[in-house]
Amino acid sequence: MRRRRFVLLWILGSVLLMWPVTGVTGVTGVKDKSHPKPPGCESNPNQTEHGVVITEVPIVTFKWHHVEDPYLVALWVLVAGLAKMVIEANHHVTNVIPESALLICFGFILGGMIWGADKVQTFKLTPTVFFFYLLPQVILDAGYSMPNKLFFSNLGGILVYAIIGTCWNAGSLGLSLWGCHMGGAMGDLDIGLLQYLLFGSLIAAVDPVAVIAVFEQVHVNEVLFIMVFGESLLNDGVTVVLFNVFDAFVSLGGPKINAVEIIKGIISFFVVAFGGSLLGFVFGLLVSLLTRCTKNIKIIEPGFIFVLGYLSYLTAEMLSLSAILSIVFCGICCQKYINANMDENSVNTVRYFMKVLANGSETIIFVFLGISAVDKTLWVWNTGFVLLTLLFVIVYRCIGVFFLTWILNKFRLVPIGFIDQVILSYGGLRGAVAYGLAVMLDENKIKEKNLMVSTTLIVVYFTVIFQGITMKPLVTWLKVKRAAITELTLIEKVQNKVFDHMLVAIEDISGQIGHNYMRGKWNNFEEKWMSTVLMKPSARKNRDYVYKVFHQLNLKDAMSYVAEGERRGSLEFVRNDKAFIDFKKKFGDDFSEAMPDIMETLKYLIYSPSIRDPVPSVSLEMHEQAMNGMRGAEEINSHHLLQQHLYKGRKQHRHRYSRSHFDVNKDENEVQEIFQRTMRNRLESFKSAKMGVAPPKTISKHTKKDQPQKMANGKSQDKSRSYQSGDEDFEFSEGDSASGYNASGSSFPMRVTYRAGAGIENPAFMADVDPMDPMQIPPWLAEAELDSGMVAPSQRAQVRLPWTPSNLRRLAPLRISTHSTDSFTLVGYPPMRQTDDEDLPPPPPPPPPNREDDHM
Amino acid sequence: MGSRASTLLREEEIEEIKKETGFSHSQITRLYSRFTSLDKGENGTLSREDFQRIPELAINPLGDRIINAFFPEGEDQVNFRGFMRTLAHFRPIEDNEKNKNYSGDFIAFRLYDLDRDDKISRDELLQVLRMMVGVNISDEQLGSIADRTIQEADTNGDNSISFNEFIKVLEKVDVEQKMSIRFLH
């Protein structure tokens, strides 16, 4: 229901948009950049400048033509995006009908509206726009996120399908259609054998865009996926060559074709395919090298990848090599190095932006495929031709796949099963590439161009919509092995590596040169040369596979811990016994690396603001949201916690030091909460005092974490420092790293100054306040204290807030483990704080205001 | 080489090996010729040194461990029978003979389990990890990797991985497939 309303609204909106647009522009193609600008466009500005005498200063002028082209492009992107949004709004629909099919249907509707308004099809997908502006990013994304190992270990099969399969499809289709034509199945058509072959070559290739769109929703097993996907990418080389060769043959005319020309055609295949791949490879290396040198200006790293990727595409196009192969290989070969070289934020940016671009153009492609259909001038119907093409496309695909698989299985270690073969043949989706090529046909040479275009469209619609919709049920029905949801476990990764090494060794021992032997050789070479040249030395260090997995697992854990903590509103969970050990195990290491010693930490603290300075604010935002890495996660966490859980309302009263302002806090609940917590803690400490154990000595008088920074008060700094040290102890228990923070312990005495008269304190409490022997607190007690559920800020936040030079002197090697944590539990009893303040008339220099805010 | 191999290998021996390991006749003769070419001492058995002479194994991080897998406990010679028996672990299993005798799990497990107590202890795991990672990872880091790995697999809490636990974790990994090599005919 909701969806329908969306659609209605949307249709209405787009009609409104379209109407004036189409009315004004007449026949200008939005996307048709190859068109020269319509005369109207150019004459208009002239008029305003010269022709029309300006009699008065115009306040507002409506200059549609001034912005027309970019405006329409932007509008279309918006339209496509909105379409996708609407379609994705309801998952019940997309579960049944793949998104690509829905987008095409949406294109029909839109096209119908435009047609209704204009009576001509104003907007179509033109080959220029498609091949130059829409396709590259989809393919670059495919290459960049290609699972390399899987791809290369199945490369043999993929190549067989891509080369022999495509040639077979093209040839058999062309010949059969020609045969049927001769047999009189199509009536009177002016198409010769060569033209049939040309048609066959353009429609033979499986389309990467369509395959990605359909298969990514089906989740078949990875071998099957890489077969279809790899084929769809690599067969472009074949398609381009076949198309060009036959196009040339058609121009030459039958009699002039001799053996020499045919041999030239075959040679050109190798040149186009390998040249394209090689070019992409070179560009990939270039990107890798460039990202190696961007140490000082990381912000442009992502730009290099997109620009060079695009350039590799254009260069290949310029040299009439296979552009798709070029950009695929560019992506494939640079992914490893750029991911290692670039800053983690840049990697995320690239990944994400690549997806945005690819997804966006995919959407636009499908919408325009739909729109293009609504054009009366295009459609030429010939039942025999259309139906026979459709039939042959499917039948020959099946025959080709089954035959080639039969041969392949003789050589494959793991044969491709029958069911997989069915899916493989059924997955032969045709798409926009075929359409683009069909539109590029020369009408003068091929009289029945429109018939071919419309047949291509029919085939595309049939494969994308019909086969796309039936793919999922088919996969379910045939019980095709699905992709296992692989959970990252360390042992599996380790074991996979072990297997790799073992296989190589066994091949060495048994003296054969197989897959693994080759891979072993390649890895050694890669290790020795490529990595050395292409990777930053620092990146090379941290790139160990096992360690990376470990690192990722740690990050994942960290995030889930943090998420859990946020859910519960505290980090107490980290401190219960078991989790503590776990956490320590898992993070101690990581953290020790991040902060091997206090100096490191200090440096980090001191420099972190300046490090970020050169980064513009936009990326700061991203930096924060990256959630990548311990620090990122922690930072977010702290923000979140701070925002959500800080007791509000008191910072504006920091100048008042008298207790009477306690009731300034208007939020009854909060006050209540604070009060209760304080009391509970006192009770706790009272008990422990009775038991003769030094209880939490830190009676932190400051409720709020933000106070330390706002309060310009030495104590607050101390407190948070101390708190922080506790935090560190608990979570990371790396002695070295922690010791620095613990220094706060030494400063404690200064601050434990309350007066009995302060009113709320009970005497037992006073006894507790023994800062000097923190070690006495048994961990369990400390934990109990912690459990009182205070909001624990993340370590990072803590570290940052209180940092001032004045603190330095307090840093002492003294290592205090638990007490500081308690400080937090007691926080928030305002009167205490105030007492404190009174006690210490000369507060240390205030910390730089809002230091934290600087980077947030 | 091939002719010499077949002269040295009696027909009935081939038959027995065929039955035991499932290799084809041609594979056996081929591997036999490889065996003899490795056998520098020409005494019908391979020693560790013979294996270590293979140059590629020297750069394989797990090379020595894999060589170990060829030698039955306490022996330092392996004859052709034993050689083939070990290689048989890596033969792709055909559907009609799903006997678990030649499953790769065990070989893989033995790779870690140096002291053959049917448990992978933390130290044993650590040794293998150390072989596989570069020098850039510190011992502490590696230690926690090992800890975590054991944590993942260890179900009975003895802080080591037993064979059963090992198989269990690797259930999802298609061991048969990952441990198979296509032996030339």
Automatic annotation (TrEMBL), chain A:
It comes from Echeneis naucrates. It is a multi-pass membrane protein. GO terms for molecular function: potassium:proton antiporter activity; sodium:proton antiporter activity. Residues 91-477 form the Cation/H+ exchanger transmembrane domain. This is Sodium/hydrogen exchanger. PANTHER family: SODIUM/HYDROGEN EXCHANGER, SODIUM_HYDROGEN EXCHANGER 3. InterPro entries: Cation/H_exchanger_CPA1, Cation/H_exchanger_TM, Na/H_exchanger_3/5, NaH_exchanger. One of its GO terms (biological process) is sodium ion import across plasma membrane. Residues 1-23 form the signal peptide. It is found in: Apical cell membrane; Early endosome membrane; Recycling endosome membrane. It catalyses: Na(+)(in) + H(+)(out) = Na(+)(out) + H(+)(in). Its main location: membrane. One of its GO terms (cellular component) is early endosome membrane. Plasma membrane Na(+)/H(+) antiporter. Exchanges intracellular H(+) ions for extracellular Na(+) in 1:1 stoichiometry, playing a key role in salt and fluid absorption and pH homeostasis. Major apical Na(+)/H(+) exchanger in kidney and intestine playing an important role in renal and intestine Na(+) absorption and blood pressure regulation. Keywords: Antiport, Cell membrane, Endosome, Ion transport, Membrane, Phosphoprotein, Signal, Sodium, Sodium transport, Transmembrane, Transmembrane helix, Transport. The gene is slc9a3.2. Belongs to the monovalent cation:proton antiporter 1 (CPA1) transporter (TC 2.A.36) family. Residues 686-748, 820-856 are annotated as: Disordered. It comes from the Eukaryota. The chain crosses the membrane at residues 70-87, 99-117, 129-146, 158-178, 193-216, 223-246, 266-287, 352-373, 385-408, 450-469.
From TrEMBL, chain B:
InterPro entries: Calcineurin_B_homologous, EF-hand-dom_pair, EF_Hand_1_Ca_BS, EF_hand_dom. It is found in: Cell membrane; Cytoplasm; Nucleus. Belongs to the calcineurin regulatory subunit family. CHP subfamily. PANTHER family: EG:114D9.1 PROTEIN-RELATED. GO terms for molecular function: calcium ion binding. This is EF-hand domain-containing protein. Gene3D superfamilies: EF-hand (1.10.238.10). GO terms for cellular component: cytoplasm; nucleus; plasma membrane. GO terms for biological process: protein transport. Residues 26-61, 108-135, 141-176 form the EF-hand domain. Keywords: Calcium, Cell membrane, Cytoplasm, Lipoprotein, Membrane, Metal-binding, Myristate, Nucleus, Phosphoprotein, Protein transport, Repeat, Transport. The keyword Manganese does not apply. The keyword Metal-binding applies. Pfam families: EF-hand_7.
